[in-house]
Amino acid sequence: MAKRILVVDDEPSIVTLLSFNLKKAGYEVITAGKGLEALDKVKEQHPDLIILDLMLPGMDGMDICRKLRQDLIQTPVLMLTARDDELDKILGLELGADDYMTKPFSPREVVARVRAILRRSEIGKQQLAEVLSVGEIKVYPNNFEATFKGQDMQLTPKEFELLVYLMQHKGRVLSREQLLNAVWNYEFAGDTRIVDVHVSHLREKIEDVTRKPLYIKTVRGLGYKLEEPKI
Question: Cα separation of 199 and 162, whole Å?
Answer without folding.
Answer: 8
